[in-house]
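Friendly challenge for the regulars: who can give me the C-alpha cells for this chain first? No prize, just bragging rights.
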Amino acid sequence: MNINSSLNFSLALSGLCLSTMAVTDSLLKGVRAAEIYVNSNCKIMASYENTQESYEGIDGYEVVFRREITDKDKKLWFYMAKYVGDSSALFCLAKPGYVNGSLLNVKSIQQSFVDKISQEESSKNFLITIRHGNGWNLPMTLERLNLSNPQKPQLKTLKSWRGPGR
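First reply, four minutes later:
Bragging rights claimed.
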C-alpha cells in the first residue's frame, strides 16, 4: 500500500467515524433516562421516561439512587430521592415499581443533605456521606446504614469531620 492509498483510507475511516458520531448524537438529542418523582411520603407522583415532557414546577423529590434488596425472600426497592428545591434527601422503601412506598424508619437522616451514597459490595449495607446543613465548612459524617432488617434499619456513624460543603 503506498502513501496516497494509506492517506485515502485514513480519511475515509475518519469520515465514517464522524458520520457515526453525528448520527448517534442526533438520535440521543432530547432523550433522557427515566425520571421518577415522589412526594414527602415516598409515594410516586410522576414519571418521565425518554420523553420531552416538562417536569418543571414539580414540588417533589427526584429519585437519584435505587437498589433492590431482599427481605425474607421478598424483593424491595431501597431508594433515595432529593427535593428539587434544596436537594435535601428522603430515604424510602417500596415494593418493585415504587408500589406502596414509605419512609425508611431512620429519622436522623431524613431531610439531610447527602453528598454520596453507595452500597457496600454484596451486602445490605450502604455508606452515606451527610453534610449537616446547606452551606460551607459544615460538620459532615460518614454513616453506615444496615438494611439486613429493612423494617428496623440500623445506622452507625463511622467518621465525623468538617467539610467544604457547597
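The longest strand covers residues 154-165. The first helix runs from residue 3 to 28. Your move, everyone else.
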